[in-house]
Amino acid sequence: MTTTLYRTAPGSEPPALVGRDQELAAIAYEARSVAAGEPAPPIVSIGLRGMGKTALLRRSIEDVRRLGGVVVSVEASDTEALSVTLQAGLERAQRDNASLPSRVKSSIDAVLRTLPRPSYDLPNDLGAIEFAGARQDAKRFESVLEDLNDEIRQNDKFLVFAIDEIQEAPIQDFRELVRFVHRTAGTNRPVWLLGAGLPNAREHLHEVRTYTERWRYFPIGLLTQQQTIDAIAIPALDNGVTIAPAALERLAEESAGYPFFVQKYAAAVWAAHQGDAISLADVDAVIPGVRRIIDNDFYDERFRVLTPREVTYALAMADLGPGPHTPNEIATHLGSTSAAVNSIRNQLVKKDVAFAPAGGLLEFRIPLTDRYIAQHRPILERRAGGSQLRAQSTKGVSHR
Ligand SMILES: Nc1ncnc2c1ncn2[C@@H]1O[C@H](COP(=O)(O)OP(=O)(O)OP(=O)(O)O)[C@@H](O)[C@H]1O
Ligand SMILES: [Mg+2]
Fold first, then answer.
1. Rounded to whole angstroms, what are the CA distances from 84 to 89, 114, 192, 204, 230?
2. What does the alpha-carbon distance between residue 258 and residue 226 come to, in Å, rounded to a whole number?
């Protein structure tokens, strides 16, 4: 018996990647166009944490490679210049593609030589050492990318950049890359770009260049009940274990189709199972323990540090249901005005409970926070301590 059938690590490819067939088909379709020399719009998967964006991106990269793509895959970071991140991605592309012709490999070397090397600060204000090969200018960078693209095309392959956590990509650097990708779209040697990121990625990309509006954005959300059941049942069946329908329904309900939770619950059930059948009772025995861990890791910590007024605000957000809401709606629900509760909203963002997926909107950062609130309502209301956020006493605060 293996205890690692399901995959709980961030970015891990699940044993059954369900519910993403349409996205994968669209990506394969566009990849074929690019391979044939027809430009395709960049595709960016957008969703909250743990929805499965990285898993989808990884599977897409495999598919694209099979179709002849040379994929430079990176995870953007706001603390690192994209050029430094790209360096690692290019080196990986060289390593991972054992079959790449040596001329493509030397073209990658040429690109690498134009990227700035990391510089190291010396102690006691002695300055910094910059390693050789600093990039001369953006033009030179673009021209070596062009050479690389030509070399790749001459070998009947095509160049693709895959960028995870795209909302973190430093705008200035990213602009150069986007400009290059867009310029090739007008040629018969288009370069393609795939991405994945949090809901604020769209706005971030808009700052990069207005034409990113015409990119395709795939919303990556919760799995349906049937997809969740498949995600859990198929890997077990492949390993000769049957899970009772009622047990699967219970797991689907408990995990609410949130891919991260789906893997967590399934992994716990799998670790505890004996024999070749899993019953509802087996599942019911495992659920409270997992729920406790999930509540603790995801929600309790965040909520524990909130002031009563912040809890009241979060309760109002939950009242309005899942998805983003405008601060105005929330304030109105509290019988207040957006300006009057602005500082509370900012604190919730600072404390990582809420975030702005797009200008003027507010959403819980962790999926299913509204369900957590519903399940812990009495405790949270007590913690809110009846704190009133009304601007003037016009309307009552409704929590129901
Ligand atoms: N389609 C899917 N079906 C079943 N499980 C999935 C699916 N997609 C992802 N998972 C699982 O869900 C978990 C989260 O996936 P992943 O890390 O890809 O999410 P993410 O959206 O990239 O999260 P983050 O924003 O934190 O990077 C992982 O355990 C992964 O194996
Ligand atoms: Mg991810």
1. 9, 11, 20, 20, 40
2. 13
**Same domain, yes or no: 26 and 99:** yes
Q: 169-189 burial string, b = 16+ CB within 10 Å, else e?
A: bbeebbbbbbebbbebbeeeb
Residue 117 has what DSSP assignment?
A: P
Indicate whether 10 belongs to any domain: no
- Name every residue whose Cβ is closer than 8 Å to that of residue 244 and which is 6 or more positions away in sequence: 277, 278, 279, 280
Nearest atom within ligand 1 for CA of residue 231: 4
| Nearest-atom index, ligand 1, CA of 58 | 18
User: Is residue 256 located within the same domain as residue 358?
Assistant: no
For the record, the structure tokens of 143 come out as 């021209």
Residue 293 within a domain: yes
- The answer to whether the predicted template modeling score (pTM) of the entire model surpasses 0.70 is yes
Cα separation, 267 vs 29, whole angstroms = 34
Contacts of 204 (CB under 8 A, 6+ apart): 166, 167, 169, 171, 197
Quote the distance between the C-alpha of residue 98 and its chain's center: 29
Residues with CB under 5 A from ligand 2 (ion): 54
DSSP state of 212: G
Going by C-alpha positions, the residue among 319, 44, 368 that lies closest to residue 195 is 44
End position of a domain, from candidates 219, 248, 281: 219
Do 176 and 145 touch, CB atoms closer than 8 A?
A: no
Ligand 1 pocket by Cβ (under 6 Å): 7-8, 10-12, 14, 17-20, 47, 49-55, 231, 259-260, 262-263
Low-confidence stretches of the chain (pLDDT beneath 50) = 1, 128-135, 392-400
State residue 127's pLDDT score: 52
